[in-house]
Design brief:
The protein is α+β, with helices and mostly antiparallel strands. The protein is 24% helix and 31% strand.
């Protein structure tokens, strides 16, 4: 399942969130179950009109090979939109259109990196950082995660091989202003792969970490510390 899992890692990291640009004009639902909101005195008061970060400030916020430690290598970025993949059996995702199965997040300013753990098949972890106006990051990301968790089971059709997907919402770390976390189980071709995805928004910055659950859990705190550090 190597080819499928590699493709689906990209989907989990970005493509299932790809309609953000189309959804950012919608009015956020404060009671949405798709996200968890920070509240109380631990949430700092900020100017809601805070500007997105400059593009050149995103790359340094990504994890690098030194942060990851021994046994990791950087994977080349694949310029693939996964146009041959379609969502089947999840009206909430299907409603978002064909791009829900391929492409990248609609936020214009982004940086991303993917690491593979040497010697372990299918053990990858991808990090993406986006910046945009707070309301756009919030409403867009919430819309897609709500759609993802609306369907516990569905299929991804890729050529002649259907991939069964089960999705469950899991606890996200108490970080940032909003956070989301899911675990996807992908079954096809006689093999099964699990992908964990965590997204945290703090102000005008959104960080998404996805990949093998163990790798995500291992590197999540460091990724959030680095990605969400105050601008200097």
């Amino acid at each position: 399942m190597r080819n499928h899992s590699t493709t689906l890692l990209g989907i989990a990291a970005s493509a299932t969130l790809t309609l953000t640009a189309c959804s950012t004009s919608s009015t956020p639902d404060p009671g949405s179950a798709g996200s968890q909101h920070a509240s109380g005195p631990s949430t700092p008061q900020r100017d809601k009109k805070a500007a997105p970060l400059p593009a050149d400030q995103l790359g340094p916020r990504l994890l690098d090979i030194v942060d990851m430690g021994s046994g990791y290598r950087v994977q080349p970025q694949e310029d693939s939109k996964h146009d041959d993949i379609a969502v089947v059996g999840c009206p909430a995702l299907e409603k978002l259109g064909g791009a829900a199965a391929g492409g990248s997040l609609g936020f214009p300013t982004q940086a991303k990196v993917t690491f593979a753990y040497s010697g372990t098949a299918d053990s990858e972890v991808a990090e993406e950082i986006y910046t945009d106006a707070e309301d756009k990051l919030s409403s867009g990301t919430r819309t897609i995660f709500d759609a993802m968790t609306a369907c516990p089971k569905y299929q991804l059709a890729s050529g002649s091989t259907p991939i069964n997907v089960t999705t469950q919402k899991v606890t996200a770390p108490e970080r940032g202003d909003e956070r989301w976390a899911t675990v996807m189980t992908l079954s096809g071709g006689g093999q099964t792969t699990m992908i964990k995805q965590v997204a945290v928004r703090s102000g005008t910055v959104l960080v998404v970490l996805s990949g093998s659950p163990g790798l995500v859990d291992t590197h999540l705190d460091k990724a959030l510390d680095k990605a969400l550090a105050p601008a200097t």
